[in-house]
Each structure stands twice: as C-alpha cells, then as structure tokens.
Amino acid sequence: DMADRSRVSLLIGQAERFPSSPEVALVIGRSLQAQGMRRQSDRWAQWIEWCAERNGDVALAAVPLLLRAMALLADGQVVDASAAVAAAARVAERSGSPLLRAWGWGLATRLHALAGDYESGFRDCAKLFAVSDRIGRAARLRTMPSLAALELQQGRVGPALAWIRTAEEDLFGRRGPGSEGADDAAVAEVGPGLATGSLLARSPEGEA
C-alpha cells in the first residue's frame, strides 16, 4: 500500500550500508513482490546490490539475485530465469546463511520442475533438505508441489501423491484441508500447486 511504498522509498539510498541482516533484506523484497509492487521490489534489489558491492558483503549480494530469480520464475520466463537461479543458488551457498541457502536451492528445484529435469531437481532438492530443519522447513514446503510435478512427469503417481500428502500434513496437521490453525500465507502460496498436482495425479491420464 501507499504506506509501504513510502517507507521503502525513504529507506532506499539513505545509507551506504544496509542497517540490518541479509535475511531481513530478502523478506522485505519478497514482501514487495507478494504485494505486486514490482517497481518497488526492483528498486529495492538495485539498492541492496549497491550496498553489497560497496561493502563487499557476500551474503547481502545473494539477496538481489534471489529476488530477480523469483520475479523471472513468477513471470514464467524459464529460459531467462535459468542463469539467474543458478547464480542466486551459487552465491547463496557461499553466503553461509541457512535461510538464503534454503531459498536458493528451493528456487533451483522449482526451475528444474518447470524444465522437466528430474535428476537435477532432486539433486538440488537434496541440498535444500540438508539445511537445518528450523530454517529449511518453509522452503521444503514450498518445493513439495515441484517434487510432485517431477514425479508426475516420470509417470510416478504414488510418489507424487506422497509428496502432496506430506505437504498437506505439514500445512494442516492430520486434520486435512479446511482445518483451523493453518498458516494462511503458506496455504495461499503452496495450496494451488498442491491442488493442481493432486488433480493431475488422480486424472485418468495420471493413473494410467
């Protein structure tokens, strides 16, 4: 909204060093994207990149790469996203930040699912699953629709449904969709992919 735009605009360019952690910078940029504020998100990424270069901050340098990769994937620009995701995952791995690493390998897994690259998808997802449980949980949850899609592309309906059930249990516990207590933001982000995967897996073509 207007208040968010004003706060971000006031912060951008006011200092030569970002006054908080790379993880906070990523959360702010991701929030702008989620609200459809693409112009503000792009300006934010540019300023964070400038701060990272000026101060030699490797961890902070991963943030604009991750944000640009997310934007390209959201637009369905798989070819353009490929180099951006690879660079983001590589720098995020060097950053030493579990959160940035989780985002990097999670994006790589999603890209591989869109490209239909089964081996690379599960190879990079293994790196994501190696991130500590507390930090990696949300990223793993975001990738489960992609893992289900990779299995379906190989005609493996059972494993695809297993990933979907695992994600649903993580979101809703064992009470199932529609239960109270689920994280609305997580459901909004992951739910459509899970529903699509479930429908495809249970279709006559998926069960064949």
Structure description:
The chain is an all-alpha fold and 208 residues long. The chain is 80% helix and 0% strand. It contains 11 helices and no strands. Helix 2 packs parallel to helix 4. The radius of gyration is 18 Å and the shape is elongated. The mean pLDDT is 82.
Count of alpha/pi helices: 11
Main β sheet profile: none
> Low-confidence runs (pLDDT<50, min 5 residues)?
none
- Helix/strand-derived class? mainly alpha
The strand count comes to: 0
In whole angstroms, the N-to-C terminal distance is 48 Å
Strand content: under 5%
Provide the residue-averaged pLDDT: 82
User: What is the oligomeric state here?
Assistant: single chain
The secondary-structure element order is HHHHHHHHHHH
**Globular, elongated, flat, extended or rod-shaped: what is the shape?**
elongated
